[in-house]
Description:
With 298 residues, chain A is mainly α. In chain A, 79% of the residues lie in helices and 0% in strands. In chain A, α5 (75-110) runs antiparallel to α6 and α12 packs across α13. The two termini of chain A are 24 Å apart. In chain A, 40% of the residues are buried. With 299 residues, chain B is mainly α. Chain B has a single domain (36-297), classed as Orthogonal Bundle (MetI-like fold). Chain B is built from 13 helices and no strands. In chain B, α5 (88-124) packs parallel to α8 and α8 runs antiparallel to α11. The longest helix of chain B is centred in the middle third of the chain and has 37 residues, at 88-124. Chain B is elongated, with a radius of gyration of 24 Å. Chains A and B meet through α1, α6, α7, α8 and α9 of A and α2, α6, α7, α11 and α12 of B.
Amino acid sequence: MVVLGALAMVFVIVYLLPGDPVYQIVDPASATPEVIENLRRQLGTDRPLPAQFADYAAKMLRGDFGRSIVNGDPVLPKIIEHFPATLSLTVCSAVFAAAIGIWLGVLSAIHRNGWIDFAARTLGLFGISMPTFWTGILLILFFSVRLGWFPAMGSDGWKTLVLPSAALGIIASGFIIRLVRNSMLEVLGEPFILTLRAKGLSERLVMYRHALRNALLPALTMIGVLVGDLMAGSVVIETVFSRQGIGRIVADALMAKDIPVIQGVILFSAVVYVLVNLLVDLSYSLVDPRVRKLQTRR
Amino acid sequence: MTVKDIVLGKTVWRESGRSSDTRPSFLKLRASDLLAALSAVVLAFAALCALFPGWIAPYSPTLMLADRILLPPSAAHYFGTDYFGRDIFSVVVYGSRDSLLIGLASVLAGGLAGCVIGAVAGIAGGVIDLLLMRFIEIVMTIPGILLALAVAAVLGPNLFNIIFAVSISMVPGFARVFRSQIISVKERAFITAARSIGMPAPRIFFRHVLPNAWSPVLVMATIGLGTSILSAAGLSFLGLGVIKEIPDWGTLLSQGRGYLTVAWWISTFPGAAITLVVLAGNIIGDWLRDRLDPKREQR
Lengths: 298, 299
C-alpha cells in the first residue's frame, strides 16, 4: 500500500512536474500540431492520467523499471547488480553508528552532567551537524593522505569500507547517542531500578543487564528510520569515495538527467526502506517480552 | 554503595541535578545558556556575511590573482587561495548568501506547508485526517535527500527549484508534530470552555490553540534550518546547485575535492562554515526545547 503510494509520488514528480514531455523532445515553436499529436500518442500522454498511471504502476510492479536513456541498459538489473556494495556500506555504517551511539549514550547517561556526558553530547551534536561529504573528505585527508592507513577510493576489500562507513556512521551515531541517553535517563528513574539497587545488585549489572535492555527499544526504531537516511547518504558518500553502488548510479544519472534510472533507484530504496522498518517492527517481539505477550493475547 | 546512599540521593536521579544549587533561578547562568548565546553570535555573524559580504570579505570573490595560486592559509589569505587564485575566505563569505537563503526559505516554506497540513488534519479529524496522514507517510518512505534530489533533477537547478525541492522534504516532520500538538491542545478544558461561551472557531484557533501549540514547531524550525542547509549543500555537492559565478558552500567544497592532496584548505573551510552554522542552529534548537518544555529542564 505504502509502496504503491511511493510509486504515485514518483510518477507525479517525474511525469507531471516538468510540464508536457513532448516539448522536451521537440521545439514547440517549429513542430506542427500533427507531429505533436503523433508524439503524444506514441508516449501515451494523450490518454487520461489514471490510465497512464495504471500502465506505469503495472510495469513497475512487474519489475520493468524501463531503460536508461543514456546507454539503453535495463534499469532494474543494474540496480540489483550494484546493490550489494551499497548494502554492505549501509550495514557497516549502521553497525558502526549503533555501537558508538549506544556505548556513548549509556556512558553519558551514567555520568550525567559530568565531563564524559558533556563530551559525548558535544560529539553527538557535531555528528548531526557535519555534512556527510565533509566528514568523508576530512577522513580521507587524515587517514589516507596523512597516515596512509586506508585507501581513499575504490570498492574492493574491507579496507575500502572502513572510511565510508565511518563517515556515514558518525552522522547516524549522533542521533543514537541523544536518543539512548534520554531513554536511559527515563528508565533509570523508574522504581524497578531502585529495587535492583536496594537488593544490592552491582551497578554494572543494573546498568547493562536491566536499564540498557529497557532503553534500547527506541534506539531500535531509530536505527530502522536511519537506514533510509544511510541509504540516501550513500549517494553522496559513494561519490566522495568513488565507490560502486546504487548511490553512485544515482549521482551519475543526475549528471546525465537519466530520469528512468533516478526513479528506479528511488523506488527501489523506498521498497528496501519499508521492508527494513517492517523487520524492525517484527523484531520488537524478539527484544521486548511485553510486545510478545500482547501478540499472543490477541 | 550503602543503603543510605540509595535512599539519600544517588539513585534519585531526577532530583540530584537541582538540589545542590540554591541560587535564585535568574542567577543560574548555565553552560547551556552560554553555549546558546555563542551560537546566536555565530548565526548573527553568518547573517551579516550574507547581507553585507563586502564589509567582511577582504577581496572580491571573483578576483583571480594569477600569481597567488593554491597558497596555504596565511595572514593575507585566512583560508588560503584556490586553483584560480581566488581568496577562499572571501568566496566563503559571499557564498553564505545562497546557502543561508536556501536554508531559511526552505524551512519557512516547508514548515508553513507542513503546519497547514498538520493543522487541517488535526482540526478536521476523521477521513481528512486519515487521508492527509497517509499522504505524509508515503512522502516519508522516500528519504528526504533522495526526494530533494529527484525533484531538483527533474526541475533543473535554479534557486527557486532547489528551495522547493528541499522544502518538500521538510513537510512531513512539521505536519506530524503540529498535528499531534493541535490534537492534544484541542482536548483541553479551556478549549471546551471557549467553545461553550460561543467563541467563533477561527478565533479559538488563533487565540487559544495556536499559542499553545507552536513551541515544538519553533524548535523544529531551528533544527530544520540546519537540516535544510545540509540538504542544500548536498545538492550543490552533487552538481545540482545553482550555477553561478560565486559558488555556494557545497559547490566550493566539491570543487576543492580535486585538490585534496595539494590544497586541503579549499574543501575544509567551506565544510567548516556549514558545520558551524548547522551546529549553532542545533544548539539553539536544543536550548529552546529545554526552555519551552519544563519537564526536560532538569536533564
